[in-house]
Amino acid sequence: MFESAAGAVVLGSLAIGVLGYHHFEHLSWLDSLLNASMILSSMGPVNPIQTDAGKLFASFYALFSGVAFITVIGVLFAPVAHRLLHRFHLQFVEEDEARRKPGDSAGRKTNPP
User: Fold this and answer.
1) Looking at the domain 2-99, which fold is it?
2) pLDDT tens across 67-110, in order?
3) 107 φ/ψ angles, rounded to the nearest 5 degrees
């Protein structure tokens, strides 16, 4: 489920880049895909950018790509981090229970009758 959400973010970001490079720089679809892929993967553009509109698009797309990258990493590692937090919490609970005296409920002292 998380992988499909991350894949959707990557494909959506790639589509924005392809359409932008094709529209603003008048690149072919294949060259637009190449430039968008390289920017999205933080490698840099392949074709030189000629127009002012293309330069503005490329700068905003590069910033957007950084945010998209952080989002994808967060979506992919959130389940792993969640499981680790649960595992450590259970370990702390088990250690706390081992330290308690028999008959002691939830670590609170009980008053004798």
Assistant:
1) Helix Hairpins (1.10.287)
2) 998 988 888 888 888 888 877 775 555 666 666 666 655 555 55
3) 80, 5
